[in-house]
Amino acid sequence: MNPDFDYISKGLAGVEENLSKAALYPIGQALELAISLIPLGLPSDSRFWLEKLAQMSRNSQSSGKRFRAKLALASSQAIGLPVDMAINLGAFVEMIQSASLIHDDVVDEASLRRNEPTVNSLMGNRFAVLTGDYVLSLALTKLGELKNHNLTMRFSEVVSQMTFGEAMEIEITFDHTRTIAHYLTTISLKTASLLSFCCQSACLIANVDEKTINSLTEFGANLGMAFQLIDDTLDFVGPDGKEKCQDFKEGLLTLPILLLDIQGNPFDKSIDEIQVLIAEKNTLTQTIDKAREYSVKAIDCLDGIRSLIPEHCLQTFTNINTSIYERLPNNLNPFPRR
Question: What is the pTM of this model?
Answer without folding.
Answer: 0.84
